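Deviation from plan, reported transparently: flavin-adenine dinucleotide complex.
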Amino acid sequence: MDYDVIIIGAGPGGIFAANEFLGSGKKVAVFEAGNELSKRKCPIDGEKVKSCIKCKVCSIMSGFGGAGAFSDGKYNITNDFGGSLYEHIGKTTALQLMEYVDRINLENGGEGTKLYSTEGTQFHKICLQNKLHLLDAKVRHLGTDINYRVLENLYKKLKEQVDFFFNTPVTEVKKTENGYEIIADKVYTCKYCIISVGRIGSKWMQKTCKSLNIPTLSNRVDIGVRVELSAEIFEHLTNELYESKIVYKTEKFEDSVRTFCMNPHGIVVNENTNGIITVNGHSFEGQDKKTKNTNFALLVSKHFSEPFKNSNEYGESIARLSNMLGGGVLVQRFGDLIRGRRSTQKRIDENLVIPTLNATPGDLSLVLPKRILDGIIEMIYALDNVAKGTANDETLLYGVEVKFYNMEVETDENLETRHKGLYVAGDGSGVTHSLSHASASGVYAARRILQQLNG
Ligand SMILES: Cc1cc2nc3c(=O)[nH]c(=O)nc-3n(C[C@H](O)[C@H](O)[C@H](O)COP(=O)(O)OP(=O)(O)OC[C@H]3O[C@@H](n4cnc5c(N)ncnc54)[C@H](O)[C@@H]3O)c2cc1C
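Because the crystal trials were delayed, the predicted structure below was used instead.
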């Protein structure tokens, strides 16, 4: 065997799995389709390259640190959202592992960052009084800059004991009598394998499950918009909680609309998933990089089962429509949306809220299905009751934001597939969809393997 363990993917799932093997004396390798951290550069510079040029391997989504590398670094410690890891390993273990991941982040450069909590907050009551439900969580906000530093420090330690293969996508995983063959630039063999390929690896994961005859379950897709408004409007919430996950049940259709990924004083960014441009957001910990705006997503979940199963394809089609109309992401003032007119460049230029992303002014009602859009508008009015000004004409809506979820890979309670020694972790497993859950799942899979290796 070339290695005891091969990990596919160097996102948080893969990194935290690799970290568990430090000092164990085991031979471990990590294969990553993208670049090492210092070489991850998105070509958009705002001058020569203004928008996404659809690189073969996206530096924002791929490379050491995975999709989380340039993210806001919000590590939510909760079983209420971010994945269903607890359904496999139990609520207590899941929370303990998320706390453990938090400690590692602190030891590697994250010390001094703030941990926010919803415990005992008055906003539970205020939300309930306005038909909104605030979910419970503790959240460590590293910020994009500190998150990057933590990754740099983790890489420095890991590369001493772990072999990293960057720009080396794994094309196939084959089962052998004693382990696995990992097909990349050449064939590598290992006894145990952890697949942690994230959302960007969803199609590859599906193909791999098919070739290894591992069953998968269809998953949901979340579709919506990113809201950007003056930071003052949400300051009472963001100062205390940083990120508030609020759920609203619409009166018209009883659909759930939820806030997601709140970025106080942050920026709105493009996201490229397999060539489709959607919107996202993040914020920085450093004062000098803070903007005057806060952004967050409003999302509605859709889950298809029969006869159409591919929820992600539905989300992709809607995102493609916005890409077709706007060449990428569209932006619209809330005032224009409710008046049934498109936003123009002139209206955006004259708007009181200055956009932090250069998006194409347009009309989101031509892109989003009516039911989803109605739900989002209802929620904006509901949020206006707890954060007055949310429903101002000047509030900007960027579309579309799509959260793709991987098909859930069938595993046992230990995240081991039906093939002994083959584990899945992170967002690629369909079990997690956040930094903390993905990291915790990596730790869990690695510990199981260590137990087996140490017999
Ligand atoms: C802009 C942005 C902001 C975000 N902000 C937050 C946040 O604040 N808080 C939060 O909890 N979550 C956030 N997320 C989500 C979070 O980043 C993910 O949940 C997390 O990164 C998942 O970790 P992972 O290791 O499972 O997968 P990923 O981070 O996606 O890493 C998977 C890695 O596997 C590699 N890979 C894929 N296929 C192959 C292959 N065949 N061979 C080799 N390598 C392969 C990829 O290149 C990638 O580097 C954000 C995501 C984005 C895009």
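The chain has a mean pLDDT of 94. We consider this an acceptable substitute for the interim report.
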